[in-house]
Amino acid sequence: AERLKAGLAKTRNALGKNLAGLFGGGQIDEDLYEELETVLLTADMGVDATGHLLKNVRDRVSLKGLKDSQELKGALKESLNELIGPLEVPLSLGEHKPFVLMVAGVNGAGKTTSIGKLAKYFQSQGKSVLLAAGDTFRAAAREQLVVWGERNGVQVIAQDSGDAAAVAFDAVNAARARGVDVVIVDTAGRLPTQLHLMEEIKKVKRVVQKADPTGPHEVMLVLDANTGQNAVNQVKAFDDALGLTGLVLTKLDGTAKGGVIAAIAKQRAVPVRFVGVGEGIDDLRPFVAADYVDALFD
Ligand code: GDP
């Protein structure tokens, strides 16, 4: 929680500085609500979530008969917790062996970094990990993954074929044959507007299903928190194409746009499994809504 708090310093500074004035005492009135609206929009919560939160705060204020602006903070925290709480659904491997986790994202979102962190996370839980080097567009990326895997005791399946679906298929079968616990299927970075690439990743999913009819057990989108409102559009597009089951929100440490989680909660509530709070291999945290809200306000 401390790491998260440090990570969210930028959002907190941006949000907190603005909120401090609002919560500083005085009457709760229309001007105050208007200022609150501006502050929430500035933290990139988006129009929908901002409207939702404002209404929720107003309801709480009238229900509890709050008068003083200092009491507004509690009402806002409660409302935010209620909004983003449903996004807190920890990733569970269940009985699947191998558990097949497919990872998607746009270039630069932090996909490769997050996969490394995830592999480490599973290993720290005593699980063996196999990686499918499905980013077949960048030979260098593939080589890097192989080297990284060797260093960290993570098996890597790579091919020269250039067919991401074939790599994924091989990896799932290899994992089953070798008794590996978790397969992480990497895919090339792509934009939702690149329709042929979206077709390609849908094919990867279909082929994974051929190798394991119960899978993939997790279809995860890696999102850069700095993309603000565009992150919501990415969630929608990848969810429409693939049926997302989880998100990793990266780079929450260097952004003032941490409010984007509220926007996601309101517009396409895909569970946030993890948040990235730094470049290091350990800088990945399971998402805990209450910690997140506390980190923003306290
Ligand atoms: P990819 O293109 O999606 O595979 O992105 P990379 O994994 O290569 O990451 C792009 C850049 O973002 C790299 O410089 C990473 O170190 C950095 N990065 C990834 N996740 C985080 C994070 O949670 N916090 C910070 N500060 N940087 C991150």
UniProtKB/TrEMBL annotation:
<keyword id="KW-0963">Cytoplasm</keyword>
<feature type="binding site">
    <location>
        <begin position="186"/>
        <end position="190"/>
    </location>
    <ligand>
        <name>GTP</name>
    </ligand>
</feature>
<keyword id="KW-0342">GTP-binding</keyword>
<comment type="similarity">
    <text>Belongs to the GTP-binding SRP family. FtsY subfamily.</text>
</comment>
<keyword id="KW-0378">Hydrolase</keyword>
<feature type="binding site">
    <location>
        <begin position="250"/>
        <end position="253"/>
    </location>
    <ligand>
        <name>GTP</name>
    </ligand>
</feature>
<keyword id="KW-0472">Membrane</keyword>
<protein>
    <recommendedName>
        <fullName>Signal recognition particle receptor FtsY</fullName>
        <ecNumber>3.6.5.4</ecNumber>
    </recommendedName>
</protein>
<feature type="domain" description="SRP54-type proteins GTP-binding">
    <location>
        <begin position="271"/>
        <end position="284"/>
    </location>
</feature>
<comment type="function">
    <text>Involved in targeting and insertion of nascent membrane proteins into the cytoplasmic membrane. Acts as a receptor for the complex formed by the signal recognition particle (SRP) and the ribosome-nascent chain (RNC). Interaction with SRP-RNC leads to the transfer of the RNC complex to the Sec translocase for insertion into the membrane, the hydrolysis of GTP by both Ffh and FtsY, and the dissociation of the SRP-FtsY complex into the individual components.</text>
</comment>
<feature type="binding site">
    <location>
        <begin position="105"/>
        <end position="112"/>
    </location>
    <ligand>
        <name>GTP</name>
    </ligand>
</feature>
<keyword id="KW-0547">Nucleotide-binding</keyword>
<keyword id="KW-0675">Receptor</keyword>
<keyword id="KW-1003">Cell membrane</keyword>
<comment type="subunit">
    <text>Part of the signal recognition particle protein translocation system, which is composed of SRP and FtsY. SRP is a ribonucleoprotein composed of Ffh and a 4.5S RNA molecule.</text>
</comment>
